[in-house]
Amino acid sequence: PVIDIEGAVAGTREEAAWRAAQLQAVELNNPTRSAVKLRQFVAAWPESDHAADAWARLAGVYDVGLNDRARAARAWEQAAWSNPTDDEAGRWLLDAGRAYASEGDTEAAGRALGLATEHPERATAAWLALARLHLATEPAAAYEAYDMALRSSDGGPAANLARLGLVTALERLEGGDAALASLDEALPDDIEDAALVRRRQRLRANR
Q1: pLDDT for res 114
Q2: pLDDT band at 13 (very low <50, low <70, confident <90, very high)
Q3: Closest CA to 183 of 162, 163, 161
Q4: CA-CA-CA-CA torsion for 132, 138, 143, 148, nearest 10 degrees?
Q5: What distance in Å separates the CA atoms of residue 207 and residue 202, rounded to the nearest whole number?
Q6: Residue 19: its H or E element
Q7: pLDDT tens digits, residue range 57-104?
């Protein structure tokens, strides 16, 4: 059999570089050096099986170690692009969208969060983030996103956040009476969620 010595050597170098990048990434006292090592790895082996993980680790270094949310967002998004079927791809897209939003890049945030909604385990959180992104300027789009968040949720706090968002968006679209009517129709009088109770009380007081 023919032995691919060159390929074996390249594979060994790749694994060695990945181990070095991993070791450096955990050195929190030198995040700049960690970022350099991880960037060098993804530049040298962009098709590596480790590329997505390297991009995700780089995003964490940018976010926590260097307080650079813009670069963190791009790195998280690149992680998801590198391996869209990875179990963590939805989380990476969600983190990217939130980071873009925190930097005021609503277009990029919408793109990343929209892709995150396609991952069932992250869909509710992504729809909630999309709704918050639109609420101030596009309440109709926010209402639709909150509705999708409610539909995709398994109940609990996330569902109540979506319900509160629906009421908020509807109040901005059609006024307090419409919001109160929707809330009264959707919720029982003995609802226990404190935020929803306060919202109902305020809307009733303002009638």
Answers
A1: 98
A2: confident
A3: 163
A4: -70
A5: 9
A6: helix 5-25
A7: 999 999 999 999 999 999 999 999 999 999 999 999 999 999 999 999
Q: Rounded to whole angstroms, how far apart are CA atoms 207 and 153?
A: 31
- List, for residues 119-128, the tens digit of each pLDDT value: 999 999 999 9
Residue 96, class by beta-carbon neighbours within 10 Å (0-12 exposed, 13-18 middle, 19+ buried)?
Answer: buried
* Cβ atoms of residues 112 and 143 within 8 Å: no
In whole angstroms, what is the distance from residue 183 CA to residue 102 CA? Answer: 30
Query: Model-level pTM?
Result: 0.86
* Best CA proximity match to 55, nearest among 82, 34, 17, 36: 82
CA distance 88 to 113: 14
170 φ, ψ to 5°? -65, -35
Backbone angle region of 175, left / alpha / beta, with phi > 0 → left and psi within -120 to 50 → alpha = left
**Amino acid code (one letter) for 63:** D
